[in-house]
Design a protein that fits this description.
103 residues, elongated, 1 helix, 2 strands
Length: 103
């Protein structure tokens, strides 16, 4: 038969394990959520860039030239800074600098 102290240690070990697993799961879910927000904003930026080109016959020199009013899935205007945008006027690249969203 196990002593009370052995049972107490076993229960504490299980609780610690649950806390560690729960924390990792929460962080993974948060990362997936952040990625979803950035992805939704990337889609919105792409639509805005294409619309700009239809009007002006070239892509804008900067993302600052876009007039974005729809910030999907909880994104904010400041999140545009998470993107690196390059263009020659005819084509563009839009990359995520780093996935570090500060809310």
């Amino acid at each position: 038969m196990k002593s009370k102290s052995t049972t107490h240690i076993t229960i504490m070990g299980i609780i610690c394990l649950l806390v560690v697993v729960g924390t990792k799961t929460w962080k993974s879910a948060q990362h997936a959520s952040d990625y979803g927000v950035i992805r939704a904003l990337a889609v919105e930026l792409t639509y805005s860039l294409e619309s700009y080109k239809k009007i002006h016959n070239h892509f804008p020199p900067s993302l600052d030239n876009l007039s974005i009013t729809n910030f999907p899935d909880g994104s904010t205007p400041g999140m545009i800074n998470e993107f690196e945008y390059n263009t020659d006027g005819n084509t563009f690249t839009l990359d995520v600098k780093e996935l570090q969203i500060k809310r």
